[in-house]
Specification:
Elements (H helix, E strand, L loop, with lengths): L1 E5 L6 H12 L3 E3 H10 L3 H10 L7 H12 L8 E4 L5 H13 L6 E6 L2 H9 L1 E3 L5 E3 L26 H15 L2 H7 L3 E5 L4 H16 L1
Parallel strand pairs: 1-3, 1-4, 2-3, 4-7
Antiparallel strand pairs: 5-6
Helix pairs in contact: 1-9, 2-3, 4-5, 6-7
The structure holds BIS(adenosine)-5'-pentaphosphate and magnesium ion (MG).
Length: 216
């Protein structure tokens, strides 16, 4: 299936995408992770993106559209993909339709993970990351040993944009630029909303039930 995981910062897109990719064997494509990977490798794209990301602003549409066009053309997307963090603006959504129709694909579902604002701030401020890509929370998803990754033993760190000022801006940017896509995809008849306020496993089981129903 070709799936977009949609939702505000901290709603659990990355957490759920990792679990879903493992269960269904489809690639997890996170534009945030791709941009951060570029930043770590100090590519031109990464250094340009950093100026926007650190402030919690969106990276320009043309950069994201080019990036996603290349990624969706890769052979591992032939039998499905999970997009996480794209699209975030109307031009990005329109470009996605065009890219998919050029590739002879459809978008099956946009899963909107709905979480109230007061929970988002808590989730983002307590998130801790590992260089290997694993993600934790100091209260809700603790590593076995504080500050250390369960999977690779590296020291966990906080994302630069998980500081309170950048978080607040990301939430405003979501309301103004990204949330309007809910109407866009509702009108297109592909939007399903899931309550994302419950525990990680409960949300995951709910999403799996929705996807299994769609596949019947
Ligand atoms: P991106 O990396 O996509 O960040 P985001 O959208 O702000 O989302 P997050 O990754 O912060 O949250 P998430 O929903 O993945 O939550 P997670 O699962 O980690 O983008 C970063 C930046 O890149 C953007 O600001 C922008 O600058 C740029 N960018 C990226 N894509 C772009 C685009 N298309 N266009 C333009 N610019 C773009 O969970 C958060 C925390 O909560 C974790 O600690 C987790 O353990 C915990 N948690 C998760 N689920 C639960 C639960 N059910 N209960 C309790 N805790 C939970
Ligand atoms: Mg994420």
């Amino acid at each position: 299936m070709n799936i977009v995981l949609f939702g505000p910062p901290g709603s659990g897109k990355g957490t759920q995408a990792k679990l879903l990719a493992e269960k269904y064997g489809v690639p997890h494509i996170s534009t945030g992770d791709i941009l951060r990977g570029n930043l770590n490798n100090e590519t031109k794209l990464g250094l340009e993106a950093k100026t926007y990301m650190d402030k919690g602003e969106l990276v320009p549409d043309d950069v994201l559209i080019g990036l996603i066009k290349d990624r969706l053309s890769d052979s591992d997307c032939a039998s499905g993909f999970l997009l996480d963090g794209y699209p975030r603006t109307l031009p990005q959504a329109e470009a996605l339709s065009k890219i998919l129709s050029e590739l002879g694909k459809n978008l099956d579902v946009v899963l909107n993970i709905d979480v109230p604002d007061e929970k988002l701030l808590k989730r983002l401020a307590g998130r801790r990351m590992c260089v290997c890509g694993a993600s934790y929370h100091i209260l809700f998803n603790k590593p076995k040993q504080e500050g250390i990754c369960d999977l690779c033993g590296s020291k966990l760190y906080q994302r630069d944009d998980d500081k309170e000022e950048a978080i607040m801006n990301r939430l405003v940017v979501y309301q103004n630029q990204t949330r309007p896509l809910i109407d866009h995809y509702t009108q297109a008849g592909v939007m399903l909303t899931i309550n994302g306020a419950a525990d990680i496993e409960v949300v995951f089981n709910g999403i799996c039930r929705m996807l299994d129903d769609l596949r019947k």
